[in-house]
Amino acid sequence: MTAVAQSLRAHAAWRWWELALIAALPVSWLLLPSHALLFNEIAILALFALSLDLILGYAGVVSLGHAAFFGIGSYAAALFAKLVMPDPLVGMVVAVATSAAFGALCSVLILRGTDLTRLMVTLGVASILYELANKLDWLTGGADGLQGVVIGPLPGQFEFDLAGRTAYAYTLAVLIACLLLVRKLVHSPFGYSLQALRDNRLRAGSIGLSVNTRLVVVYTVASAIAGAAGALLAQTSGFASLDVFEFHRSAEVLLVLVIGGTGYLYGGIFGAIVFKLLHDLISAWTPQYWNFWFGLFLVVLMLVGREKLMKPWAWFGAKR
Amino acid sequence: MLTLLFDGIAYGMLLFVLAVGLAVTLGLMNFINLAHGAFAMAGGYITVLAMSRLGMPFLLCLPLAFIGTALLGALLEPTLYRRMYARPHLDQVLFSIGLVFMAVTGVDYLVGSMQQNIQLPAWLKGRFDFEWVGIGKYRSFIIVVCGVLTVALQWVLATTRFGSQLRASVDDPRVASGLGLNVNRIFLLTFAVGSGLAGLGGALGAEVLGPDPTFPLKFMIYFLIVVSVGGTTTLTGPLLAALLLGIADVAGKYYVPKLGAFIVYTLMIVILLIRPQGLFARAGGGK
């Protein structure tokens, strides 16, 4: 085995804390049943952040409209359950397929231009979808949201209960499945080529990587995962509303990812935990003005520099 | 029909004045400032509050809004913005989103979430009625003011000493400072004027757009469209883009109200798909 292959393999090897983290997820389901609803939200946010990490952290595509795919998945799952059949698993497949198809379509838009162009186009796509969902009220319920969505039980007759335990288990299963998939993906040659083109697109192109194909593929995968997160939200809450497309959601997931660290598989999970706990804390204290602290946090974080947050042990000692 | 066109032009001119400061920070200093709308909102609120609480006349409020927001910009540039110039775009975006959220909630807290309205002086109300077209007096006022501003800006940038200093600092800050230019001071001044113009635009638009706390978020995408579609290498690019946007928006909302902002966004995406550097960018001039 050559030295290169060895070092690549060493990167891809499982570390003890990775296993511990993935094992900790089901344990949280067993140990803290009363917090299942909150944990469910955290897990959905973590999945959403994971999908953004794939395009932002690994492929270096900035996006201000990632909520577009989240929303597509959400509405697709809710509409499917309402109009076709209530089975959650089939609904999930449909939602993922829809958002993946939409992502493939949109990926053409992010191939050209500068960062600014990409920001604009992604923002524009999310805004268009928001307008569409708002105006097509015969289908989506407009500003009132899509009501009357009934989700059937999971196979094995597990009904979605009010305490959210079934929901959390379901979300966890999807999250872990996606996490394993993405881990596989970023440690594959494909994943390494993404990092190469993130760091220098021109150089990646000149050593023979077909940059555009790779971007299309990764964008499609990322939108599929974002769609899965959206579908989870719709299925576990039995509701889809306009706020899934809102700019606020795209900004929030960016912050989550930045807190947890970009280009680092578990950043989304850590970020989501910290973010949701902070959110709960601050909005319990000042519910109406939570946004102010959100903004202040962003500003301070950027002034200090996010690199320092990506290595929290440099600041707070060994955190993990 | 002509009235519609005229309204569109007035709206476009307004957008141009609102966005021109952004064109400068973005195109010249290469900083993605999503918080630009916050300055415009500040200008709008200064006007509204000065008129309703202090009873100042409308015409006096306009320069007040300009000076107020310019000072605000001058305060924020060296304390916050300057540190962000050299950062990656993602950091700049997150930073300015943070500022937007702070501004939105701050105004909500201080003034309340109601949309504010102002009373125009009598001589700006009503319209000139010609045989075949009615033209709102206030709309014509906006066009005149914005037109004068545009010409003045172009003149400053193209012919004055400060304009050439600014262009030099932008092209290469290191060489410019080596030649003895105070680059920081030039950027500070430019940023302040850009913010001031946004404030002035917000003040002028207070009657049309009606400032409310979500203003920076609502119009953020419009400003960005103007700048990204127009390209940032010239002033005429954003001007034409703003006019196009204004006319398309007004006409779109009039003829197909169901689709609303949909048309504008689609138009933008199509344009950016074909010309990623903007419609009017010089070849190879993009950053």
**What is the average of the pLDDT values of chain B?**
79
Strand and helix order of chain B: HHHHEEHHHHHHHH
The proportion of residues forming helix of chain A, as a percent range, comes to: over 70%
Structural class of chain A: mainly alpha
Quick one: overall form of chain B? globular
Could you give the order of strands across the largest sheet of chain B? 1-2
* Major beta-sheet overview of chain A: none
Helix content of chain B: over 70%
Task: Give a written overview of the molecule.
The complex is a heterodimer of chains A (320) and B (287). Chain A has 320 residues and is mainly α. In chain A, 73% of the residues lie in helices and 0% in strands. Chain A has helices at residues 3-12, 16-31, 36-58, 67-83, 88-107, 115-135, 137-140, 165-186, 189-199, 201-206, 211-237, 247-260, 267-285, 290-304, 306-310, 313-316. The model of chain A is unreliable at 316-320 (pLDDT under 50). Chain B is mostly helical and 287 residues long. Chain B has one domain (2-274): ABC transporter involved in vitamin B12 uptake, BtuC, CATH 1.10.3470. In chain B, strands 1-2 form a two-stranded antiparallel sheet. The N and C termini of chain B lie far apart (39 Å).
